[in-house]
Design a protein that fits this description.
Length: about 240
């Protein structure tokens, strides 16, 4: 051993690794996602970053799907729920909450796609659902209809965020939209009379205008559509 060199430290002398925890695993997953995208958040990658084996992570997170749901739960904390207790029309306040939710997902395209199948169940998700149900109740939507309606509202918002975030990353999106508009305007009224009559409307409106209309449509539908079943549907369930 040369002068000035130090002997290798024994395992006992090395700093102890931080204890694994679900909170620590999710925090590291969120860090990787912010830097590199959700597709890079794998059990193997997490294990490497946390200096452990993949099998150790499954003690705290049962699957990659559960991990993605936990990441989504973390981001749901950024949804603005202040409109729930604010003044104003209940439909406007529902739209405000859902637009905030959509923006959170829109900022993270891979998370938006994961949210289509992820099933978070933490405090942030529960607060979001409770807030929407509170506003639907304020608007007089019967509880059973609100219970199904809130699911549809979140599906619409999630699908829209996933679609728009993908288009936002596509450099050809505007060209594709213009090509579709030309196709609709060039159809023959003899073969496609309804398309020809509504060509302008089919491609009209900003994304924000169309999103608000979709929310209003679902809310109005939940308010006016009772949960009824045919005997055949009841038997199938």
């Amino acid at each position: 051993m040369t002068p000035g060199s130090s002997a290798p430290k024994s395992r006992r002398e090395r700093p102890a690794k931080p204890a694994l925890s679900r909170q620590g695993i999710v925090a590291e997953a969120v860090r990787i996602m912010r830097a590199e995208g959700l597709q890079r958040v794998t059990m193997r990658r997490l294990a490497k970053e946390l200096d452990t084996g993949p099998a150790s992570l499954y003690v705290y997170v049962a699957s990659t799907a559960e991990l993605h749901a936990a990441i989504l739960e973390e981001f749901l904390g950024a949804v603005d729920l202040r409109p729930v207790t604010a003044e104003g029309d209940w439909r406007d306040r529902i739209a405000s909450v859902l637009i905030s939710y959509t923006r959170v997902l829109f900022e993270h395209p891979t998370l938006a796609h994961s949210a289509l199948v992820a099933r978070p169940a933490g405090a942030n998700y529960l607060a979001l659902v409770e807030g929407l149900l509170t506003l639907l109740d304020e608007g007089g939507v019967p509880g059973s209809q609100a219970a199904w309606g809130v699911d549809v509202l979140l599906q619409v918002a999630t699908a829209t965020a996933a679609e728009q975030s993908t288009r936002g990353e596509d450099t050809n999106a505007e060209d594709e939209h213009n090509a579709l508009a030309r196709t609709l305007h060039e159809v023959s009224a003899d073969t496609h009379p309804r398309i020809a009559a509504l060509a302008d409307d089919l491609v009209s409106g900003t994304p924000a205008q169309r999103l608000r209309w979709m929310f209003d449509m679902v809310v109005n539908g939940a308010l006016a559509t009772p949960r009824t079943h045919t005997s055949e549907e009841g038997a199938a369930s």
